[in-house]
Fold:
Amino acid sequence: MEKQKIVIVGGVAGGATAAARLRRLSENSHIVLLERGEHISFANCGLPYYIGGSIEKREKLLVQTVEGMSRRFRLDIRNLNEVLSIDRLAKTVRIMDLRTGKEYEESYDVLLLSPGAKPFLPPIKGIAEAKNLFSLRNIPDTDKLKTYVDDFEPKSAVIVGGGFIGLEMAENLHDLGISVRLVEVSEQVMEALDFEMASILQDHLRKKNMVPVVY
Ligand SMILES: Cc1cc2nc3c(=O)[nH]c(=O)nc-3n(C[C@H](O)[C@H](O)[C@H](O)COP(=O)(O)OP(=O)(O)OC[C@H]3O[C@@H](n4cnc5c(N)ncnc54)[C@H](O)[C@@H]3O)c2cc1C
Structure:
């Protein structure tokens, strides 16, 4: 692979994996990894299990540090740096360093976008003001939710959404002794599964007293 300057937007699952793979393919490329959050390459999959307590230590979620990964793969990693815009003709991105508020430009030969997704928040009145409502996507979300659960020891919870993350949170909150109600807009939990398979899950939820409210 020829020597190139590769700029990657997003430094967690896709972005960090791509950076490591690109370094293995080319020793010469300059690889810049831009992440607006504080953490890179953390274990998204473990977040519900840390809240539930089966992963005891927070540091177990932090698969890589900026320093460790920069050194290991000779990467130019800039966390707390948000890409604001892309100029495709000039092949540059505009970036804000969130620590200082300063904006700057970075050129690229190849741009790789891995900015992830945001949880969908239904347009329900009061949702923005509620102090006991959470979504789960990253480490700051996890810290907020875990602190709430540990400090206030809630007795009941409603989970909106019966997909992977909703079910994992149901399992973990239930294990903490919290009475869980799961609400799902479609006809079954885990919409990606055939109904016969989802029924096994729904039976299991019923046995655990987490009667799913579907449709
Ligand atoms: C709680 C939870 C549990 C999960 N469990 C599993 C599981 O068990 N198995 C599984 O396969 N998958 C699981 N997933 C899904 C998996 O984590 C995602 O599919 C994966 O993280 C997607 O990778 P990504 O690189 O597209 O986005 P992400 O990993 O979300 O990374 C995107 C990053 O881009 C950054 N970013 C966005 N915009 C900008 C910008 N303009 N400038 C700079 N940075 C930016 C964001 O801050 C973010 O950190 C889970 C996800 C969650 C939230």
Notes: The chain is about 30% helix and 25% strand.
